[in-house]
Amino acid sequence: MAETLAGDQSNLPADTDTDRTPPNRSNPPNQGRRPWFGPLLRRLHFYAGLLVGPFILVAATSGALYALTPALEQVVYDHELHAPVTDTRLSLAEQIVIAQQEVGETGALIAVRPAPEPGDTTRVMFAQDGLGSSETRAIFVDPGTGEIRGDLVAYGSSGSLPLRTWISNLHRNLHLGDPGRLYSELAASWLGIVATAGLVLWIFRLRAARRAAAVTGAVARPKRRTGYRRVLSWHTTVGAVVVLAALFLSVTGITWSKYGGANFDGLRAAVGWTTPALDTSLTGEGGASDGGGHSHGAHGDDSGGPSGPANPATFDAVLAIAQRINVDAAQIEITPPAEPGTAWVVKENKRSFPTAGDSVAIDGGTMQVTDRTDFAEFPLIAKLSSWGIALHMGVMFGLANQLVLFALALGIGSMVVLGYLMWWKRRPTREPRGLAGPPPARGALRGAPWWGLAVVAVCAVAIGWFLPLVGYTLAAFVLVDVLIGVVRARQRA
């Protein structure tokens, strides 16, 4: 793969084990050009799978664990998340006061997630010194009796609890912080390329088999495959089943990445595919909503909401207003103003099909709606992005979504293992130094037409620019392959 992108090296003798290429003079002009695209993809698929395979395997294994964490949370944190069903129900204000008494003056109230269903607890969330970025202290309150059911650290907008957070960080950055994110971006970026190359090679193989059958006029009888051929059959079968899902996981995974994700966000902004944002400002222009997301009237600059701690009683009031406007999902979050001059926010915090994701901003002083967003009115790309993230996280269709993700992650991981096993099976057993199988023959681009070279170059540059880690590693592959070719040529000289 790498050598073919590096250019013609016909001046180098062919390697006897790995790089044997028929001389060009063996192809008379009347026989046309030798196939080049298939061999190029085969070399790309081989080298990328060989060198990036460990990253994909780790991402797939940790992703399989993460897929099950929403269900595991319900079991591991059953006492915190659930409470006995009672005939009575305390107001949100009463539950918040109980949680504040538990925390004392060490925490600042920043959000409340009311119990979504009977038998669930209310989550009252506080900011506190000593917590990490995006972490909150969550107090779980029985909405029927006011009993404190738990006190845990929650993370991010998903509100994941310690077990899911630990597995999520393993999948995301191997617990190495921002530097560790490069591993997951590398895996997500190359997964789609390797899967696409494998899919095209599979199609080429099917077409070749059909052409052979058409020429001979005979139907090939199934043969019992052994050794390398059997492993190849397994690899191909699993790949054909999971290839589309692998492409989906690659694309959605890139949206979270540092470099490729930033380019993706820039592309969305450039073409107007951004997700509508709720306006929480109360200063300047703003006012009561007409119910369609458009404000009328005006607030003066001195009308900017509370400057101290949020009043617990206001939570019940803004929730009632939001439920009359557009927030009607079971799982919601109420956020008081982060600073003077901003609105209360009530939003649906579980992505699900088809529409959960509405939100509303409310002026805490006048109890007027100042802005709203309705998921049903989002641009199609914004909806697809939201649904894609929810599917990737395993929260869109509940347990069924999680089990499918678990199986797909295991399938992707098994393809990597089978690929390495194929590499091992192809090793030259009669060669004492033959520790592993040879790569596909180099020199595919020598027989490519000028337009083929141009397309390959343009695609390589475009992908390398949009996915920088692919560009850097591809350049490294090319350099290493060229150096290996030069060293072997000198050894034979």
Element layout with pairings:
Elements: H1 2-6, H2 37-67, H3 69-76, H4 78-81, H5 92-103, E1 107-113, E2 122-128, E3 135-141, E4 148-155, H6 162-173, H7 181-216, H8 227-254, H9 259-270, E5 285-289, E6 295-298, H10 312-325, E7 332-335, E8 344-348, E9 359-362, E10 369-373, H11 380-393, H12 398-425, H13 450-466, H14 468-492
Antiparallel strand pairs: 1-2, 2-3, 3-4, 5-6, 7-8, 8-9, 9-10
Helix pairs in contact: 2-6, 2-7, 2-12, 5-10, 7-8, 8-11, 8-12, 13-14
Uncertain residue ranges: 1-30, 285-307
Q: Got a strand count?
A: 10
Note the main sheet.
4 strands, antiparallel
Overall spatial form: elongated
Number of domains: 3
Question: What is the strand content?
Answer: 5-15%
Mean pLDDT: 83
Write structural notes for this entry.
The structure is a single chain. With about 500 residues, this protein is of the alpha+beta class. It folds into three domains: about 1-25 and about 30-70 and about 175-215 and about 225-275 and about 405-493, no CATH class; about 80-160, Roll (Nuclear Transport Factor 2, Chain: A); about 285-380, no CATH class. It is built from 14 helices and ten strands. The chain has helices spanning about 1-5, 35-65, 70-75, 80, 90-105, 160-175, 180-215, 225-255, 260-270, 310-325, 380-395, 400-425, 450-465, 470-490, and strands at about 105-115, 120-130, 135-140, 150-155, 285-290, 295-300, 330-335, 345-350, 360, 370-375. The strands form three sheets. A four-stranded antiparallel sheet has the order 1-2-3-4. Strands 7-8-9-10 form a four-stranded antiparallel sheet, with helices on one face. A hairpin with a 6-residue loop joins strand 3 (about 135-140) and strand 4. Helix 8 crosses helix 11 (about 380-395). The radius of gyration is 29 Å and the shape is elongated. The relative contact order is 0.16.
